[in-house]
Amino acid sequence: MATLNLIDVKKSYGKDEVIHGVNFDIHDKEFVVIVGPSGCGKSTLLRMMAGLETVTAGEIKIKDRRVNELEPMERNIAMVFQNYALYPHMSVFDNMAYSLKIAKLGKAEIKARVDNAAKLLQLSEYLKRKPRQLSGGQRQRVAMGRAIVRKPDVFLFDEPLSNLDAKLRVQMRLEIKKLQRDLGVTSVYVTHDQVEAMTLGDRLMVLNGGYVEQFGSPIDLYERPASLFVAEFIGSPSMNIIDGHAADGVVELVNGVRLPGSSEVAGAVKAGIRPEHLSLDPAGVIAIRKGVAEQLGSSTLVHGTLDGSDIAISVALPGVHREEQLDDVMCFSVMEQGLHLFSADGKRV
Amino acid sequence: MDKRVTFSGWWLPMLLILPQLLITAIFFFWPAGQAIYQSAFMPDPFGLKTQFVGWDNFTFLFEDEYYLASFKTTAIFSLLVTALSMGVALWLALMADRIIKGSGTYRTLLIWPYAVAPAVAGVLWLFMFRPNVGLMSWYLDKVGYDWNHVLNDGQAMGLVVVASSWGRISYNFLFFLAGLQAVPKSVIEAAAIDGAHFWHRFRTIVFPLLAPTTFFLLVVNVVYAFFETFGVIHTITSGGPQQSTTIMVYKVYSDGFVGQDLGSSAAQSVVLLLIVGMLTIVQFKFIERKVHY
After folding, report:
1. Looking at the complex, does the CB of residue A105 fall below 8 Å from at least one CB of chain B?
2. B196 vs A82: CB contact, 8 Å cut-off?
3. CATH for A4-233 (1.10.3210.10, 2.60.40.1730, 1.10.600.10, 3.40.50.300)
4. ipTM score assigned to the predicted complex
5. pLDDT by residue (tens digit) across B77-98?
């Protein structure tokens, strides 16, 4: 049973505050992903949980125990680093056994645990090798193995897949997910890749400029983004945002197109529509002039403009393979629940 | 395509390396050749003519008690200088690596002693420890310690070791600091999370990763202790008292230029050359293999 709680956690470097009061509770065995653009403070937050950075204000609790003042080693956590941080002069076995030797476990116990982890990660044949003799994916596994053997309360992942090539990344992503589920260890995972975030996390936290934008299940964030930032960050290709004006349950976009909106909203709004939530409909009110088309095989992405204006808009057309199937100007309608409205300051309304 | 720069003729490359060749030939090969040549001759007492004596110079040397003692002195001296200068430098580098505020000032100050020439450093230490006028010997006398390195051979050795190590610490410090900063920070952090305290991390992670630096410094410092400490010893003790600080290179000088026994001095140079050559070969052959990871 390992829970992790952050209570109004802040971080300042000198006078610059970089984390502005973060609150969240992570349940036992939960996989939480912190996602955000570079420099949003996500790695800093993770390093504070690990004990590698001091906490300026607030409280971090692991298993209901305040850990602010504890050294990293006293927190019983394991961390996987972006560059793996393997000990270059030690064999794979020694890398994994390092923490166990420090904990003064018996030789037999150490061997059993390392062998077990190696088997789990398909590293058994490489135990005698040095890190430099391994491929990127294998090094990544060793870093995972080093975390597993300790049986920690919490796993912390700091962008562990960003040094791998695209194909390996997808494969390791699955393995991490599976491993975490099998081992049932509470995990926090930091990434800037929203696809990784969506696929891995039980819950997702979007961090922007040191503020939490939204914290919830991936699908929640996709279906009901709490802010313009989350709306644009989650989902690929990203959401179309068009200025508009709402009154009497109708949203009028800047080019004059009128869409049914909510009767509770009035005034200037930003309307968000995901590219995949526009469907071809000869009777649709949104006319799009085709610009560039990207043929992805299973679907085609069209980047164009609203007809009669220069407002950029993208549409995803599943099932359309070839650009020749498309007209220059096409009409679309918005699917149900496909229209998101945000106020001028970026909050969902 | 050949990426190397190639010359079409031979005279330009020759001209370009000529200065280096000349320097090496004049200041290294010629003296070395002279030493080997002279080691087989013995001048008469007036220096008017020399006589071929074959191996006699060497035979005399290895029967000379003082010469054999200088082996031991050299071994002790170079061991102490290397250990002291590298040990202190490593410790200072570790501390300087941890400092965040004002680290630039510390580093600059720690590097300064390297700029002091060995002979000048020797004089500085001599002023401080001179039994009759030295500041330090006065303080030592105050606390009841009888300091007289002019008479006491242990104290004399201690003083030349400290004086020789002093400037060297800066040099070693610079390399150790660079070596420490090349150790990835995340590796240290990973070890901290794995439960290793500072000294345990140092022993199991940092020091092994520093091994290439340490090895390089070991070779360089031994060579330094063998040769370049001449200035310090000459100014502080002149090899005394009773030859207790006469290391081999100093004996080469004192027998050759003070004692005017050029044949013996040349033979000693040849022996010294062989010893340093062998030491370096041994170091590279047996130690270097173990330091790369």
Report:
1. no
2. no
3. 3.40.50.300
4. 0.81
5. 999 999 999 999 999 998 888 8
